[in-house]
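seq:
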Amino acid sequence: MERTRRALLGSLAGGGAALAGCAAPTTRRERGGESIYTRVYNEVVPAVAVVHAAENDRKVGQGSGFALDPQTIITNHHVVAQGSEIDIGIADGRWSSATVVGSDTHSDLAVLSIDDNISAPETLSFVEEPQPVGTEVLAIGAPFGLSDSLSRGLISARGRSVQSLDRFGIPAAIQTDTEINVGSSGGPLVTLDGDVAGVVFASQGGNVGFAVSAALAKRVIPELRATGSYGHSYLGVTILTVEPQIAEANGLAEPRGVLVVETVDGGPSDGVLQPSLTGESAPSNTNVTAPPNGSTEPSEPPAIQQRELPTGGDIILSVNGTRVDSTAELGQVLALQTSPGDTIPVTVLRNGEEVVVEVTLGTVPEN
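struct:
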């Protein structure tokens, strides 16, 4: 060990002249000295737009967007939802009015068509495959109305469920530590290849932001363009991730799966899945916070503030052949693998035995 250490010190001493002043680079450099971030920015920014929404000549929404083709801009539903007058600022400085072709609150996506005889100078494409955690990404948009702004970070996590504007959550979301602020919404989150990994839609503060995944966007956007709306799969249950306390209350050796707390009357799972709580058996002192399940799930693990934990009822172990261990995973499977009207196998733990039942999915209700 000592000889190795001395040899190392000797080699460092011999190379001292070459190493002196050569600190580790702070940014990636490509041939010719240009930062890779500069290259990606220059390639992507011509496709990025500013989006203004107004009602009765009063601005009610502002965000970002990007061109999917020369006449089509992608942004967030919440950016344009409150306004009937939409204006698009193209990267070359021109402005145009725009029409909302389709909009979806459950994925927070909207498709706009440029009205005037102008077009975006460049367009972007979605990634072919989901990008792994640790992938470096860039957000380009108009935070606080400051157009053509760049921030960089990493994909911090995948498969998140994030609260949307309604009682459901946005499934399969990307978490990123890229700086995201008011006005960034609707802009692209791109890889260093310049492809869209997600559509920025929310920030939780600090270094936690979220984007609609390319996988979900690629399912929703074509239908919005074709019909103006998108139907999300609906299981019609209230659910909780089986965490240790719930597992213990239900006599499980280990936490696994998703507990069916309630089924929606007349919903797809009514009479098919067995809930923990019913109108007759629900204890009056039990308060379980968990929204009904559709293609979307609670934004955070549900808070359980109660004297009694829900017991009995089915524990969902897999859906459509895919194992699920959390409400977020269940929402992701429904969102990316199924459509309304599909009849799918659901494996549940019922009275200590695994049982497979079939559920015909409905469509997430609008209200």
